[in-house]
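Researcher: Go.
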Amino acid sequence: MIALVWLTHALNVALLGRVMRTCGMRWASVVLAQVVFGLTAANYETLCWSVQWSAVLSVTFMLLALDAFFSDEPTWRQVGWVASSALSFSRGVLTGPVLALGVVLQGASDPGRQGAGRLRRAAWLVAPSVAVAGLILVLSSGNHHHMGGHWADAAVYGLWYLCANPTHALLAVEPYGWHTVAVLGILKLGLIGWGLMRSSGRVRTLFVMLVAFEVGNAVLLGIGRFHTGLPTTIASRYQYASLLGSMPILGFAFSTLLGAVPVPNAVRGLVAAVILGALGLNLVRDWRPQIEPFTDWRGTQSRRILLEDPDPPRDAVPGIPGLPMDRAKVLIETYRLH
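Model: Structure:
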């Protein structure tokens, strides 16, 4: 399962690059986004915990939907990717609205695409997400059934998440207070604003769609996780979507600034290769200190308690408060876990 998560992540890295190139972005932009998104240890909880495969797979289908959208493939194919993303993971319901927003942006930039046809296309793209979101609202339990008096808490949680991530991980800054989060948020907002002002055409449309995806993710996280406290907003499992939303814009900034250096193209390419290579090596070095305590907590300790400890605790399994120990033992025996 862990290997499957990593293979899916590798596919996502390739698809992200494909979408960026389809939109006409330079190779320097693409490679920087791929290096950071693909190698950062900020994703350790997503990539080293098998239950997170659904979240990674949902992003795969979203990137396939974006690729189909910018490649002008048939609407029915885009609808299929939207439905697959929504069915893979709860926050995959954002894929439909994100693509519908892209249709609206295309219509605004090209009057020939305005009218009933554009609205029908947007409606078809949103429909699977609306259907799955309706099922989630009706069939699943969670905070969305108990939001009375908690909307402000959800809004603060979502805003804190949006401002802190992924800047805190990339700059190795721990957001202990609101002032730190505010500074991180200003830096992120400045990058987004600069990227939107300097870009145009498909590149700008992609940026707006990715920002909308990240904002939507913050809203859903605020509703679903506000009760866990603000420190959890920077959890590793929440970095994947944030990195996906921000890295193409950061890559665009890197490429633009590099292009402004008055040196021959060959020298510029060599400088880019050295910077990206050093960045990749530094990101890989961060994995060991991040992953060792996590694997001990999620793997070694749990296995020892469940399979080796002659007198395990009688209450819930550590880290899984809803799973009683006796039920865990039954599942181990039933499925021959080892």
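Model: Residues 298-335 form one domain.
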